[in-house]
Amino acid sequence: MKITFVLEWENAILSELERTSELLTQIHLQSNIQQQAQFELLILHNSEQVSEEFISDFLRNVLDEKNLPEMEETRVLDVKDAHYFQLKNEGVRHAKGETVIILDSDIIPQAGWLEALLNAHQKYPEAIIAGATHIDYSDFMGKCFSLAWFFPAPSDRSDMESANLIFSNNFICKKQLLIDNPYPKMAEGVTRGADTLLWKDLERKGVKLFICHQAKASHPAPNGWEHFFNRALAEGRDDYLRLFERDFQVGNPEFRFFKIYLLRSKNTIVRILKNRAKVNLSLWQVPFATITMLTYYLFYLIGGIITKATPRYAKVSWQI
């Protein structure tokens, strides 16, 4: 069996490259001890954002510095004008493996991640199996987002869970499933959410989604204050526009969006107080974490309001 790691490089630009270095380290180390499969690494990038030469040099430096074994095949593919979901679609289309593992370039798999995904895929070969991703809470911003963002809090679970929503940052499935069902094209200006539409479509077709809690990985919080505010504005814009999609359409999208904002603000307060011990958030840090995340969701609300008022401006702004 041949398996292709499909790795987009856009998130590596937004986050810190130390995370990408550790990701590359883990997939090389963990794949090297799997004897039942051959592995290919396929990296997708947009040359308007980053050059092939930079990526190739970066990968070579990581392999050399850490004395890592090379995979059977590694390719770097330029997809001009493409962004996050388009990069993933093109990666699947060009993958040589009959099985693909879709990865974001800023996640860090934990020990045993690959073996757990492969075992789950062997048990449910027709399904999509996602790893369990939590926010890296090694710093204050990470603690804030781990508690109050859309990612679940870290857990010590190791079971398989049936789901109707998974993240696109690490999952395994048959290549043909994504060839037949690529990420759909989104409304103009929207940067995130195509996976939510895809999971809805696959659910209608009877495709099962699972989360393998034994396959753990961490994802970063927004990197710096500029990314913090841009991400909040973009998330508000994308969530507001999603209410006009067929699967999520409602009669009064403005009111529904405001209710979502209120619910997330309320959950911010509750989750920080209830779960702070899970991420070692001190009691004296609670008010600062609460203010940080309520500010994030205030800008989330502003993003939706600006989209309603000046949709043309919102669609060309806050590209993440």
In short:
This protein is α/β, with parallel strands linked by helices and 320 residues long. It has 12 helices and 9 strands.
Describe this structure in words.
With 320 residues, the protein is of the alpha/beta class. The chain folds into two domains: 2-219, Spore Coat Polysaccharide Biosynthesis Protein SpsA, Chain A, CATH 3.90.550; 225-316, no CATH class. The chain contains twelve helices and nine strands. The protein has helices at residues 10-14, 17-32, 52-65, 84-94, 113-123, 140-148, 175-180, 194-204, 224-242, 253-275, 286-309, 311-316; strands at 2-8, 38-45, 73-78, 99-103, 108-109, 128-135, 160-163, 170-174, 209-219. Strands 1, 2, 3, 4, 5, 6, 7, 8 and 9 form a nine-stranded mixed beta sheet that branches. Strand 2 (38-45), helix 3 and strand 3 (73-78) form a beta-alpha-beta unit. Helix 6 crosses helix 11 (286-309), helix 9 (224-242) crosses helix 11 (286-309) and helix 10 (253-275) packs antiparallel against helix 11. The longest helix has 24 residues, at 286-309. It is globular and about 50 Å long. The mean pLDDT is 93.
List keywords for this structure.
320 residues; Nucleotide-diphossugar_trans; transmembrane; Spore Coat Polysaccharide Biosynthesis Protein SpsA, Chain A; Glycosyltransf_2; globular; Glycosyltransferase; alpha/beta; membrane
